[in-house]
Amino acid sequence: MKRIIFLLLCGMLPFMVAAQATRPVRGVVFNAQGVPMPGVTLTAVGSQGTAISANDGTFEMMVSPYTKFIEASMEGFISAQAEVDGSYLVFKLAVDKKYLENKAKAEEAARLEAEAKAKAEEEARLAEERRIAAEKAAAEKAEAARIAAEEKKRLEEEKRIAAEKAAAEKAEAARLAAEEKARIAEEKRIAAEKAAAEKARIAEEKKRLEEEKRLAAERAAAEKAERERLAMAEQNRLAQQTAAETARLAEVDNAREAEAKRIAAEKVAAAKQMKLEAREAKAEPWKEAKLKGYRSYVEAAFAIDFNLMPSYNVHYIGGYQINNQVYIGLGTGVSIDGDDGRNESELVGGNATNEVTNNGGEYLHLNLLNVPVFAYFRANFVDRRCSPFFALSAGYRLSSKRRLEMPFQNSVVYGTSGFFATPQLGVDFRMNKKSSFYLSAGFNIEQKPFMTEYSVTSVKYQQKLMYGIKLTLGFTF
Fold first, then answer.
1. What three-state secondary structure class fits 411?
2. Are 369 and 334 spatial neighbours (Cβ–Cβ below 8 Å)?
3. Are residues 109 and 152 in the same domain?
4. Global pTM?
């Protein structure tokens, strides 16, 4: 057991020694003005541990436990040492003025040396430029002499060529003059020959015309005799053919009359067939119609509610035909509500309104002008010329307010606007590819003012639903 413990202690000894081999040292470096200095080299005196201060002047390094001093140094500053006593080390480095003076002297010497070198280079460059200028002047002088010699030679050559050209032009002019003289003589000869030939042609033409006149007279006499002979023969032939032609014409007339009757009968039958085809073509164009796109509806409607209050409506609907059967759109128009024959004073002062209680009431609408705004949906059950359909319109009625004159109080003003909806069933009659008219009947549901209580000093009302029947006649295009 003791041997095992000894071996464990021997194994742990290197780690214990290594753990005590170094220790951390921390601190900060400032300049004489107290500003943190980055980039300062920190060296452990008597060992190999070094560190560089950070941007904020702080540093941290690991040193031997036997290290006594840390030295801070940087070029241009006087180095400083601090004893390692386990505390946070603070260094303040002062500027090394002697170092700055030596550095300035070295920089000035380097500057003077560079100026001397630049001056020597400039003198060498100027000497080289003078040499090049001299060589260039000599070359230009030689080139000018060569060009002058060549120019003299060229002028002499041009004089020789001009002389040769003048001689050649003179010989050419003489040759052209001789040729022109020969050409004029030839033209005179040709003109004389043409004149003689024209004279002979005119004489020949005159002789030919006289011969033609003689032949024409002989041919006219022969043709006259032939015509007289043919006339006599034709008269005999016509006399012989008259009887046969008369019989043949009679037969032809009979056949022509029969053919005319047949053709007339065929024309009557063709006219009837064309009328029938035109009627069918006019009646059936809806079969080829493709109604997809924007379409407009204009309709007039009459509605009456279960209290026998009538209303008259004119609507315009514009929207999109999705296919030949489904249509959606938006509509507006005007609607005029009628009355039941009583005036306002009878409504608010007569026996009928005196009997109004909280359990009963009376609708208040007297010749009201409304502007409905609504959405419209329509679906045809089949795609035929005569097609039943279902339609639904729903929206809001905009109306002016109504005023009732009360006996013992100010006038009562009540609102007449409200929602409405009308499901309809109808039949659409297609007139052509795009146009049709339709008839429909629907169940009308509307919000209208309803008088719930009346007294000499007050009238109370509220909005309630009113039900009725609506008949519509419309045109689609």
1. coil
2. yes
3. yes
4. 0.40
CB atoms within 10 A of CB 416: 21
pLDDT tens figures, 128-174: 998 999 899 989 988 998 999 899 999 999 999 999 999 999 999 99
- Among 95, 111, 143, identify where a domain stops: 95
Domain endpoint, select from 283, 308, 330? 283
Alpha-carbon distances, residue 48 vs 19, 22, 45, 70, 263 (angstroms):
18, 11, 8, 11, 138
Distance of CA 192 to the CA centre of its chain: 84
- Tell me the per-residue pLDDT of 99-119, one tens digit each, with 9 for 90 and over: 878 888 888 888 888 888 898
User: Is residue 132 located within the same domain as residue 188?
Assistant: yes
Domain with 177 in it: 98-283
How many domains are there within the chain?
3
Same-domain status, 270 and 313: no
As given in the structure block, the two tokens for residue 55 are 């941007």
Return the structure tokens found at 182. 């020969």
The residue written with tokens 């109080």 in the block is 409
- DSSP secondary structure letters along 240-301: HHHHHHHHHHHHHHHHHHHHHHHHHHHHHHHHHHHHHHHHHHHHSGGGG----EEEEEEEEE
Clarify whether residues 234 and 308 are in a common domain. no
* Number of Cα atoms under 13 Å in the Cβ half of residue 3: 0
Residues 353, 368 within the same domain: yes
